[in-house]
Structure formats: structure tokens, C-alpha cells
Amino acid sequence: MVTPPQDMVGHVARQSARNASQANAIDLEAELTWLSRVIERRFQAYFDTGEAPPGGDEAMVLGGSPELKAGSAYADLLVQLGCDVVERLALILALAPHIRPQVLDVFHTRNQALDRRFTEFAVLRQGSDEALWPTLDTLAFLVGGADLALRFPLLRLIGADHAFVRLGVLRPLPATPDEPMHRAVLRIGEEWLHRLTLGGTPKPAEGVQFPAQRLTTKLGWDDLVLHPVTRDQVGEIEAWIAHGTTLLDDWGMRRLLRPGYRALFHGPPGTGKTMTAGLLGRATGRDVYRIDLAAVVSKFIGETGKNLARLFDVAQDKDWILFFDEADALFGKRGETRDAHDRYANQEVSFLLQRIETFDGVTILASNFRENIDEAFARRFDSIIYFPMPRPEERLRLWRSAMPARAVLAKDADLEALAREYPLTGGAITNIIRHASLQALKDGGRPISQSHLLQAIRREHAKEGRGT
Fold first, then answer.
1. How far, in Å, CA of 262 to CA of 415, rounded?
2. Taking Cα atoms as reference points, which of 189, 176, 101, 86 lies closest to residue 139?
3. How far is it, in rounded angstroms, from Cα 13 to Cα 10?
4. How far are the Cα atoms of 178, 179, 226, 397, 404 from residue 222, in angstroms, in the given order?
5. Do β-strands 288-291 and 212-214 pair in parallel, antiparallel, or remain unpaired?
6. How far, in Å, CA of 223 to CA of 119, rounded?
7. What whole-number distance in Å separates Cα of residue 328 and Cα of residue 326?
8. From 41, 134, 265, 326, which residue has the greatest number of CB atoms within 10 Å?
């Protein structure tokens, strides 16, 4: 199979993104036109009768919702959530202030008899420009006027178990703490506003809520030298990312399998654990985030659990890969319970077990020593992958692949001998080549000699606390 050039792959991806964005804009335009008709019909019914009708005209008011194009972010969300016509109206009503605020201008209409705005419209005016924000009561007015039998069921849309709230699609916010929930503003969640307008998932801002850095790489699988067994096991994670949803849903395994995937990478430093995590993200199109354990682990009782809860809440439903490097600090063995602090520490480990098992993304823990990881975690990994010290033939590949393309080797430079005689990791070999290359440049750009390489090996051994 011929692999297309990287620039061609990027061009196809950008064109696909533009097409999806255009389809989404067309769908939102059609949906806003429908919302305008719904508002017009409700106002006409209201002013024709002098009062909001008791719901008998619901079908007449809400009818004519447009057929949307499959593949747009908005249409896909409606399908994903299984939205009925009322839920669909709630969603576009919440979006309107952000993408077509003038659709709501009619709600500025004042009651001439009382010289005040209509209470039943229940929109909130906020800001110096008196921007209008629809509430649950606004939705209730559009759906059924004054009919309480239609109003009360709408409270389910802001219930904790409804998909709108559970997934953060809508964030119903009371104007004040004492405001009743039916007066809650229907605000679209920031992440979903980004998805439905700009497309894709917004990158999280590093901080207290999400203490992690995005892990990226420009390298490919050909640049990674692993033992064949290790590479095959990493391929199992790729297979899960590609086909896990099909296995859970289409093949009916969701009732038996947990969501997400959990893996432990263990082995000496420099054997490719971090690089593998980055390559998994690049190969599968998923973002990889390396968790900042220093910002997560706290000496204060209970704080570590809170920090992790926030982290996993942000990452849920994002298709991200979370990478916990040097995970011993967080997932290490539980000690003997001697005091209250030990009890809380063990409770936090139990919380971690529960949170990792319910996380729907890919979680990778990395440790230099498998035995440092608590057995309670080890039993729950979907795969435990050992990254061994490279063998001589693998070390030779590492020496050759890490050598700069413009570097010139002296005649006495013997990479085969170095690969055979020195048991080094890929990370160590990269450090050695960097140091030897700098020495060669310092010497006037001379070819890299065996002495340059041996000097760099001794320097690396000293850094690691080993003799020559």
C-alpha cells in the first residue's frame, strides 16, 4: 500500500474540515429560520387570543422543523442525544444569543397596558446593551403558553440525569441564588458552543482545573525502535481506539465491558514509554495530555482526590489520552493504615480506582518499576506492556536513526561495536549523539569520531551514576 505524502494528508483533512463547517452553518441557518417561525407563530397565537393558549396548538407552533444534513456537528449532536422537537427547540434557543441574537429582538415588545415588559416571555436583559437571554420559562411560553401540564415536564431538561446537563450541553444558571429554577437562563456549555460553531473540541487551558500539558511529536512509528512483542501490544491500544466503539455498541459488548481503556507502560527510563504515548495520539488523531503530578498530588487530606475529580471531569467525553508519567507518586502501593492520614490516602486510591474505571478515554500509566504500582490497579489494566532495554540489533537501529542527517562520521566511528558493547536505552543514545555532535561542531565541524562518541558515553554514564 502506498502511503500518501504528509502534505496531501493535511490538505485532505483541511478540506474535510471546511466541508463539515459549511454543512454545519447550513444546518444552523435552517434551524434559526425554524426558531423564528416558532416565535412568530406563538406571538400570533398569543396576540390573536389575548392570552397564551393552553397548549392545544403545540403541534401547530412547533411544526415544520427542517431536515438536517448528516455529518454536521449540530445534526450529529441531535442524533447522539436522540432529541425530540422540544429538546431541539431548547438547544437552538440557547444558541441564538451567540449566533443570531436579533432572532430574540421581538421579546423586547412591551405590554402597553402596564407599560412594562411581558412577564410571560421570561427573557432576561443583561449588560449595557440589554442583551436577551432565554430562560426555561421562555421555552415553556413557546411550547405551550400558559399550560402548566406542558411547563412542568420541561423541568426535566435541567435535571442532573438529563443528557443536556450530564454532558454539559446546557448549563442552566439562575440569575440569583434565590431565583427559581424555571427562571434559569438556558446557556450553552462553552465546549459545545465551540463544537457547534468553530468545530472540534477546544483545547483546555492549563491550570488548576486541568493540570496537564499537551504531548505532541513530529516523529512516526518508523522512528520508534521497540521490541517486536512490545510493538504488537501497543498495536492493541491502536485497535481499541479505532474499533472500541464498534465493539461496545454495534457488537453489544457495552453491558459486559467497561468504557475506555487502561494501560500500564513499565520499564527502564529512556525505553520509549513517553514517545509511544505521543505516537499513539498522532497515529489515531487523538490529543494526548501528560498529567502534571506535582499539581495533582497534595499533602493536604482530600485535596488529591478533588484535583483528580476535576481533571477527569474536564477530560470526560473528549476522546483524549491521559498520560501519567512516573505514576508511582499517585498510583503507588498503599501502606499500612496507622493513622487518619493513612486512611484518607487509601480512600483516595480507592477513588482513583473508581474514576479510572468510569473514564471513557484512554488512560496510560508509566512507571520504571511495575512492582511499585498498587496491585488493585494492576488487576484493572486492560494491558500491561513491558518496555525492555533494547537488544544489540535494536541499539544499532537507534544509533543510526538518531544520527543527524548532515553529520559526517569519521572512519574510526564504529556504531556496530558501540551497539554491541554498550547496553544503552534510546533516550541515552540520543543524549550521547547530541553531545558528540556538539563536540564535533565545537572542534570546527570535524567528522564525529569514535573518541567523540566514547567521551559522550562516559559523560552519560557519569550522569546516571555509573562507571565507564
1. 38
2. 86
3. 5
4. 61, 60, 10, 10, 16
5. antiparallel
6. 66
7. 6
8. 265
pLDDT at 345: 54
CA–CA distance from 366 to each of 70, 261, 361, 372, 395 (Å)? Answer: 40, 14, 16, 11, 22
What's the Cα-to-Cα distance from 463 to each of 273, 397, 457, 466, 467, rounded to whole Å? 21, 24, 10, 8, 10
Beta bridge partners of 126: 131
123 contacts 107 by C-beta, under 8 angstroms = yes
Determine how many CB atoms are found less than 10 A away from the CB of residue 407. 14
Q: Cα separation of 287 and 200, whole Å? A: 12
Q: pLDDT by residue (tens digit) across 81-133? A: 888 899 999 999 999 999 999 998 888 887 777 766 776 676 776 655 567 88
Return the exposure string of 199-226: e unless at least 16 CB atoms fall within 10 Å of the residue's CB, then b: eeeeebeeeeebbbeebebeeeeeebbb
Q: Tell me which residue of 322, 224, 323, 346 sits closest to 275, measured CA to CA.
A: 224
Looking at residues 345-364, what average pLDDT do you find? 78
**Nearest-angstrom CA–CA distance, 103 and 96:** 7
Give backbone dihedrals phi and psi of 184, rounded to 5 degrees, phi first.
Answer: -70, 135
The residue with cell 500500500 is 1
The string of pLDDT tens digits covering residues 213-272 is 999 998 899 889 999 999 999 999 999 999 998 999 889 998 888 889 999 999 999 999
Query: Scanning the structure block, which residue is given the C-alpha cell 397564551?
Result: 52
* Cβ contact 329:293 at 8 Å: yes
- Contact between 326 and 274 under an 8 Å Cβ cutoff? The reply is no
